[in-house]
Structures are given as C-alpha cells and as structure tokens.
C-alpha cells in the first residue's frame, strides 16, 4: 500500500541530545530552556527572523487559532468570516472562542478566501474579524490582507496551519501554525502563534497558562494550552534536518509535475504551485467522480484523501453554528467534490509516485463522468 501520508519525524538518535538536556535541566513543561531555543530557531529559520518575543508556542494549531481570536477581546457572538473550504479545526476554534463563524466561497484559482471576496461580504454580514485559510500550505497574501486590515480596521487571524515553510509575515496580522505530525514540520502535536507585537504574545502566553500573572494571581481567565519540553525537543531535532525535509518535499513535487506533464493529465492544481511546495498535493479532476476514483485507487494499493470534503457547513455538528455569507458556494463545491489529495510525504520513492500517476491515468481513461456536487444549505 502506498500511504497517503507517513509522518516525517526525527529518529531516536537525533532526539537523544535534546532528551539529555531535559534530564539535565529537570524542566519538562511551562516555558523551559528548550521552549525558548525552539522558538528562536523557528523565528530564524522559518519566519523571516521576526522577533521571537512575538511568538508563542502552544499545544496545537487549533488552540493557536482559538487563543489568537480570544486575544482580540471581541464580544461573545461576534461574527468571524472564514472559508467554507477548510478543515473542521478552523470553525471549531471560532466556536470555542465564543464567536460565530460565517462561511463564504473561495477564489477559483488559488482556492483561498481573498481580501476581495472578504470585502464583498463585510457589510451584509456585520463581520468583526476575518480568518483566511492557507489551504494545503499555499501562503495567503500577507500584503493583500495587510491592506485589507488598513482599509477596514478589522483584525485578521490567518489560519496558516500547514504553511510554516511558505508563509510571509506582516506586522499587522496574527498567524496560527500547526506543528502536528502530519505537517511539514511536525513535533507530534503543537502550534505557533505569531502576534503583531510582543505585548499581545505575552498576553497569549499567560492565557495559555491558565491566565497566571506574576505573583500567581489571575486577572483574566485562561486555559491549559502549553507545549511541553519533549515536544520542543522533537522540534529542535526537526530544525537540525530542515534542509533535508525541504529538499525531499521539493523533489516529490517535481517528480509529480514531471509525470503529470508526460502523461498530459487533465487536472487543475492551485495557481502559483510553481512558487511554493504544498503541504498536501491536492488536484482537481475534470468531469470525474472523485469518490469513485478514490475507491478505484485504494483498490489498487494507493491511498488518497478527500480533504475538505464535504464543505465545512455540511457537517451535522455545525448545522446550527454556521452562518452562510451568501447563497453561492459554486467554486468551493467544485474544488471540494472533484478533488483528491495524492500521496505526498518524505518517505515516498520515485517508483511510488510513478505508480500513483499511472493508476490515475488508467482510471481516468477507463471512465469519466460529470456528477453534480452536493449543496448543503
């Protein structure tokens, strides 16, 4: 079986020096020495050298979004505009922050919520904050969203969960990254929040530690969203092999694109994919039932994934929570219903990629259908 994803984690041998540091420090959580080392290296090697004091490491990418939203001090029930084409964590973080998710359609080419789409949905829906999603690791336009923030005065929290190797940073926006094992830099479980300034990052750090202030008093309630020294040890070991991680992912993408071109497969990928390496390789097929193709590939030993399908508003748990920004989700429905994420990870071989593409070609040639997408409204 060619697996859809196998986490690319450091070996035990690479972890041992950092585990020994934990033993020597007798510090296991609560912002220890490895926490600060890992934060510094993330800043230097992944986030354009921004001040590490603007970063807070937390227990997950979901808690990163939630804490960033809570840091804004919005009234309960305030409306948050986000993409209908996203993972459940996005809307769950919004709901957990006691806010109301409002979902809208995506751009046809990038598959993202753009500033232009957001502006069309502001007045009618009384939006107070926007959460664009970096789908599949494609970076959102920090410049575009910074101009949006300047024009509208609305805060922007970027759900950039899988995009830590691609995303540029603007000083006026919040960013939430995931360090889950399935992400390009995985530590097992964890998240990163980048704040506009140091004071906001410090407020989030307190919030993630039950709200404790110096002197052990609590002025504002918090939660327990800390990341442990053990997770930071994994993160430091990942930083040691960062160049190899990037190179392998780039090589895999190049092999796929070469195979696609050789077979002249009629698919669509995200616009701009030649400028970044995605976290997941998602392709949209023309006039093909993605569900049927998924089953056919699985039957031949290739596991794929229908990521972001169905659209987020189709989950029963969110039926009474989500507001529709409009009646039209045409682009999101098409990308969601006709797309598959192909195997894409650090353990793939050239043979794996060749077999995957050949099976796709064979099944596309055997049967092509036009099937309407499901509209959940």
Description:
With 377 residues, this protein is an alpha/beta fold. It has helices at 12-25, 33-46, 61-70, 88-96, 115-120, 122-125, 142-152, 198-207, 229-240, 242-263, 290-299, 330-338, 350-366; strands at residues 55-58, 79-83, 100-104, 127-131, 157-159, 174-178, 191-194, 267-268, 281-285, 323-324, 339-342. The chain has 2 domains: 12-240, Type I PLP-dependent aspartate aminotransferase-like (Major domain) (Aspartate Aminotransferase, domain 2, 3-Layer(aba) Sandwich), CATH 3.40.640.10; 242-366, Alpha-Beta Complex (Aspartate Aminotransferase, domain 1). The protein has a 4-stranded mixed β-sheet with strand order 1-7-6-5, sandwiched between helices. Strands 4-2-3-10 form a 4-stranded parallel β-sheet. The protein has a 3-stranded antiparallel β-sheet with strand order 8-9-11. It is globular, with a radius of gyration of 21 Å.
Task: Describe the structure concisely.
By secondary structure, the protein is an alpha/beta fold.
User: Given the helix and strand composition, which structural class is it?
Assistant: alpha/beta
Stretches where pLDDT is under 50 for at least 5 consecutive residues are none
Q: What value does the Rg take, in angstroms? A: 21 Å
What is the CATH topology classification name of the largest domain? Answer: Aspartate Aminotransferase, domain 2
Helical segment tally? Answer: 13
**Beta-strand segment tally:** 11
Approximate helicity band: 25-40%
CATH superfamily of the largest domain: Type I PLP-dependent aspartate aminotransferase-like (Major domain)
Can you identify the CATH class of the largest domain?
Alpha Beta
Strand arrangement in the largest pleated sheet: 1-7-6-5
Return the CATH architecture of the largest domain: 3-Layer(aba) Sandwich
User: In the residues, how many domains can be counted?
Assistant: 2
Main beta-sheet strand count, sense and barrel state: 4 strands, mixed
| Portion in strands | 5-15%
Question: What is the 3D shape?
Answer: globular
The N- to C-terminal Cα distance equals 37 Å
What series of H and E elements makes up the topology?
Answer: HHEHEHEHHEHEEEHHHEEHEHEH
Calculate the mean pLDDT score and round it. Answer: 95
């Amino acid at each position: 079986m060619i697996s859809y994803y196998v986490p690319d984690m450091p070996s035990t041998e690479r972890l041992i020096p950092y585990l020994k540091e934990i033993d020597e420090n007798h510090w296991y959580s609560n912002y220890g020495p490895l926490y600060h080392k890992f934060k510094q290296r993330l800043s230097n090697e992944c986030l354009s050298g921004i001040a590490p004091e603007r970063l807070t490491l937390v227990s997950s990418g979901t808690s990163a979004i939630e804490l960033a939203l809570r840091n804004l001090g919005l009234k309960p029930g305030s409306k948050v505009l986000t993409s209908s084409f996203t993972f459940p964590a996005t809307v769950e973080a919004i709901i957990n922050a006691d806010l109301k998710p409002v979902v809208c359609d995506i751009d046809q080419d990038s598959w993202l919520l753009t500033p232009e789409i957001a502006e069309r949905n502001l007045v009618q829906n009384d939006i107070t904050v926007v959460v664009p999603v970096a789908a599949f690791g494609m970076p959102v336009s920090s410049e575009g969203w910074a101009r949006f923030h300047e024009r509208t005065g609305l805060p922007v929290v970027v759900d950039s969960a899988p995009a830590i190797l691609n995303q540029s940073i603007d000083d006026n926006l919040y960013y939430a990254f995931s360090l889950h094992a399935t992400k390009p830099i995985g530590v097992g479980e964890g998240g990163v929040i980048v704040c506009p300034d140091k004071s906001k990052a410090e407020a989030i750090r307190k919030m993630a530690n039950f709200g404790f202030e110096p002197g052990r008093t609590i002025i504002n309630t918090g939660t327990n969203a800390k990341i442990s020294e053990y997770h930071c040890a994994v993160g430091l070991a990942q930083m040691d092999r960062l160049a190899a991680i990037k190179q392998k992912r780039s090589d895999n993408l190049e092999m796929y694109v070469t195979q696609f071109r050789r077979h002249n497969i009629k698919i669509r990928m995200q616009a701009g994919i030649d400028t970044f390496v995605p976290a997941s390789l998602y392709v949209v097929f023309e006039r093909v039932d993605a569900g049927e193709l998924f089953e056919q590939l699985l039957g031949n030993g290739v596991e794929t994934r229908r990521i972001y399908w169905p659209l987020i508003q189709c989950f029963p748990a969110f039926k009474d929570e989500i507001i529709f920004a409009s009646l039209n989700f045409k682009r999101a429905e098409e990308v969601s219903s006709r797309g598959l994420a192909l195997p894409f990870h650090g353990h793939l071989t050239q043979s794996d990629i060749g077999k995957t593409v050949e099976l796709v070609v064979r099944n596309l040639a055997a049967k092509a259908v036009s099937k309407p997408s499901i509209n959940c409204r």
